[in-house]
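Pilot study result, target chain (181 residues):
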Amino acid sequence: MNADEERQFREFVAARSRSLLHTAYLLTGDWEQGRDLLQTALASTARRWSRLREREQPDLYVRRALYHAQVDRFRLLSRRRETLTHTVPDQPSGQVADWADTVVQRQDIMAALRRLPKRQRAVIVLRYFEDRPDHEIAAILGVAQGTVRSQTHKALASLRTTLTEAEPSASSTAPGRSVTA
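Predicted structure:
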């Protein structure tokens, strides 16, 4: 990599690292693991920067590298079994009583997101957290658009189930907290 390419890469990292870190966090469910995942993806991108710069799509490459690096980590760490759950409400049940309830809800959502299989999690992150259309998600993950739609459907069903099951136990342990559909 020559000096000009290095400068361009540094500018890209400075401009996009915050967004990419959020994606990595959502894929891993942990800030430290997300930082490690992003560093792995950026190192891979740096090695190929001169070829990517010509195609004008380094962001797509980094997101694909994030996803594939997470899949590799998931395979190495996938000794845990998934926990099946019932249903999740489609809509919030009203105003959240206080900040503590918001934090608990966010933790419940992140826990449910972590339970999703790797591809379903990636589809949900790319669609709902990054607001990407199906064709971009398909390009990033290297799958067909129909696969993106089916994985989204399965992931949302699983999230509904997980969050609905978490609801009774959370409301019984937190007095005054009510989450009704």
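One observation from the pilot: The chain has eight helices and no strands. A full batch analysis is planned for the follow-on phase.
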